Amino acid sequence: MTPDHDFGVCRLSVVPIWSEAREGFQLSQLLFGEVYEVITTSKDRKRIQIKTNYDEVQGWIDAHHHVMVTPEYFVQATHADFKITTDIVSTILYKKNPLPIVIGSIVPISTSELFKLDHQFAFNGEAKPISQKRNGDFIETIACRYLNAPQVAGGKSPFGICAHGLVQMVFKICGYALPWSPEQQVMAGKKVEDTAHATKGDIAFFKDKSGQIIHTGIVLGDNKIIHASGHVRIDHLTEEGIVQQETKLRTFSLAFIRHLIS
Predict the structure, then answer these.
(1) Percent of the chain residues topping a pLDDT of 70
(2) Is the pLDDT of residue 1 over 70?
(3) Is the pLDDT of residue 107 over 80?
(4) CB atoms < 10 A from the CB of 215, how many?
(5) Looking at the structure, do residues 101 and 144 belong to the same domain, yes or no?
(6) Does residue 252 share a domain with residue 147?
(7) Are 102 and 149 found together in one domain?
(8) Does residue 79 form part of some domain?
């Protein structure tokens, strides 16, 4: 980290991160409170290339969505044990105006201090310390708060989320850090022998005919899985893969399951 780098923080509910300086597709999203490093600015100065602090996603945000913070703020924000919201939607009073924020947003309050912000804010919703690890039952509770969210590429919110985004966000809220891409998520935890040995809160990965990982979801009890396919839904998990609850058809082939909960 060099002192001439710029840093930023998300001060809107949800900000898209694009793949390109112009056009492109949505790679990921920033939620309220997430910090990032500025890499460069596009030639027309309409987009800013960033690298997120939490999972090191690199992409472009609209210049109007950028809120600059000092290097000192960035460093403290990356080390403080702030709160992460657990309500589907809650409201924060920011700059004396109400701002709705979604589940998984970061509010800069820790157990021992109130972080000094450039602008005062007030929050009284449900939240927990980011570092506080929770068990399989809590993981199921949080995962089910995303039920029926539409599947959206690069999404991280209950109003649009992708399969690996669902897995990352649920575990982030429950105190476990996971990378963004499924290719990196497959390295987390330890491999489970088979579905009979899977427990609530395990992560299941699914493959195409060539063996490439194309989908992921969270194991629930009673041979069920919650995942984002069209929308966030609960289906049957078998040794062969996912069997859709309504059609009884197999939609994804199981590659393996991994256990992350300590």
Answers:
(1) 94
(2) no
(3) yes
(4) 23
(5) no
(6) yes
(7) no
(8) no
Say which residue, 97 or 88, is predicted with more confidence.
Answer: 88
Distance CA 229, CA 115 (A): 39
Higher-confidence residue of 165 and 117: namely 165
Q: Which structural domain range is residue 170 located in?
A: 136-259
Q: How many Å apart are CA 9 and CA 32, to the nearest integer?
A: 8
Mean pLDDT check: name the lowest of 55-64, 70-79, 137-146.
Answer: 70-79
Q: Quote the tokens at residue 80.
A: 């403080």
